[in-house]
Design brief:
By secondary structure, the chain is mainly alpha-helical. Helices cover 80% and strands 0% of the residues. It has helices at 5-23, 29-57, 62-87, 97-113. α1 (5-23) packs antiparallel against α2. It is elongated, with a radius of gyration of 16 Å. The chain starts with a helix and ends with a helix.
């Protein structure tokens, strides 16, 4: 079965939300950030393996495989950023060009895929 973008994002969010209380018990924000990133990366790796096996079993076209891989990878990045910011909030440098660009870039990235 293939999933759409919102379904993939939801899968990652449910996982992250479930593990967040445990991760928040870690001492430093670096440890928390590393833990949430690793959680998402592991789930992504498992999801990619599942996609490959389903694709082989159901004879998906290369374009279908690529589309699903891109969707799951994109979803993982979105949720990784969301939950990384929950455990280590982004510190904007008020008024700096870099912080305005970062906010614009993240918002644009999210909007482009909605």
């Amino acid at each position: 079965m293939k999933y759409n973008k919102l379904q993939w994002i939801n899968f990652f969010r449910v996982l992250a939300e479930e593990k967040l209380p445990t991760i928040e018990r870690l001492k430093t924000r670096e440890q928390k950030s590393k833990a949430i990133n690793q959680l998402i990366k592991n789930y992504l790796a498992d999801s990619l393996e599942n996609i490959k096996s389903k694709a082989k079993k159901h004879n998906w076209k290369k374009e279908e495989i690529l589309h699903e891989i891109l969707l799951v990878t994109y979803a993982s990045y979105i949720v990784m950023l969301e939950y990384r910011n929950k455990v280590w909030p982004y510190e904007y440098e008020s008024g700096s060009c870099g912080s305005r660009f970062a906010r614009f870039h993240l918002n644009t990235l999210y909007v482009l895929w909605i």
